Amino acid sequence: MQDYGFERIGKRLFAEHLVGGNFGNISVRDGEKGFFVKRTGTYLDDPGDPAFVPFHGEVPKDASSEYRVHLAVYRKTAYKAIVHAHPPYAVAASLEADEIRPLDSEGIMFCPLIPVTSGDPGTQGLADAVTAAMLHHKLVIARGHGTFAGGATLDEAFQLTSLAEHACRVIAFRKMFL
Fold this sequence. Notes:
Elements: H1 6-15, E1 25-30, E2 34-37, E3 51-54, H2 67-76, E4 81-85, H3 88-94, E5 99-100, H4 105-110, E6 114-117, H5 124-134, E7 139-142, E8 146-151, H6 154-177
Parallel strand pairs: 6-7
Antiparallel strand pairs: 1-2, 1-4, 2-3, 4-8, 5-6, 7-8
Helix pairs in contact: 1-6, 2-5, 3-6
């Protein structure tokens, strides 16, 4: 099995407190055949072998519960990797806003607008909403749920995830000084 960096990125997600428990998932596109995704119930810092989800065909029963989002995004975009995390400040901000406009320099430079979408976890509705937003934005927050970031690599998707949390933390801290 090729090393796609799942464990390395999973450990970084934990180290930055962007996920907890066995929440969140990551995936990597495998050309035009499908993608590899974390298996449901496994931990991101110790994911084991990922499940392969074909673009057309039966989805393995142990694929991540958010496979629908990954599948829909890959079918309609050129992203090669997706990170889904549950960063607490980003999730909290999504409960109060329909979009996040970072105030920090990195956020403004790399992701000046982070859309907030809706949909129940694990549903086609969430997949459709996230995909619609990711046609125009590399990063989106599902209201009350978590971030989805797409990139050319897992590292890029991770960096966007980290950026979302940092930007939302800065917004929250700023409010303490007002």
